[in-house]
Amino acid sequence: MIGFQEGFMPDVLRLIDAIYESALEPANWPEVLEQSTRYFGARGAQIGNSDLVNSRLSFSLVHGYDWSMDHMRRYERLMAEDPRIAYFSANPFRPVHCRMSLTDEELHASRVYKEVLSVGGVEYSLGVNFGDTDRALSYFLVLRDASMPPFTGQDCEKLAMLIPHLARALRLQRELDTMACAKQVGFSTLDSMALGVLTVDENGHVLFSNDLGARILDRGDGLAVRDGILQGTIECGADLLAHVRLAIRHQGLGRAESRQALRLPRSGSQGAYMLVVSPIRVALGRPPWGAEEEPLAVIFVRDPDVAQETREELLQRFYGLTASEARLTDLLVSGRPLKKAAQMLGLTEASARQYTKQVFRKTGVQRQADLIRKVLTLPTGLAPASAEPLAVPSHL
Question: How many Cβ atoms are within 10 Å of 173's Cβ, its own excluded?
Answer without folding.
Answer: 16
